[in-house]
């Protein structure tokens, strides 16, 4: 009687880097994606960037090589999604996503595809106004914003007034809470947010 031979070559899993500033969430995602054949490997060219806490993804993408990342965020601010996408990540998923969708996103990115899946959002802001919103939400003063955008301070002040008006807010604190997805603390939701869809 002969015993069947076992395969000698190991099953090769696909590798990715995982960046998540919340250790418990990172461990859970890493373990769950293993079931889909994905192994965390720090030297992998493809990365999964979990935006937790909100704002981490912006920091990582600003440091360079954004096309190495598939970004996942639950921040509900549409202007924030646009800012993430402007950096040029391989993929962007916004809103709640199951682990199967994360595994599928890694497959798409590994195949060289650039994609995004975000809820529908028609921002009333221009690209310059959106940058003013981001810098203001990051705590920058008008002078620094003006230097970054090569504008004078009066133009920035007027631009931020337009941002406040277009979004229905009165001050920097309110727009910062909006940008970081914390507008529920304001006891109202901006009227500019719409339903979900694939873009």
Notes on the protein architecture:
β3, α2 and β4 form a beta-alpha-beta unit. It is elongated and about 55 Å long. The protein has helices spanning 23-34, 56-62, 78-86, 99-110, 127-137, 142-149, 153-167, 172-179; strands at 14-19, 38-40, 47-50, 69-73, 91-94, 115-117. It has eight helices and six strands, in the order βαββαβαβαβαααα. With 199 residues, the protein is of the alpha/beta class. The protein starts with 13 loop residues before the first strand and ends in a 20-residue tail after the last helix. The model is unreliable at 1-12 and 193-199 (pLDDT under 50). It has two domains: 14-117, Response regulator (Rossmann fold), CATH 3.40.50; 127-186, Winged helix-like DNA-binding domain superfamily/Winged helix DNA-binding domain (Arc Repressor Mutant, subunit A).
What distinguishing features does this structure have?
six-stranded parallel β-sheet; Arc Repressor Mutant, subunit A; alpha/beta; 2 domains; disordered N terminus; 199 residues; Rossmann fold
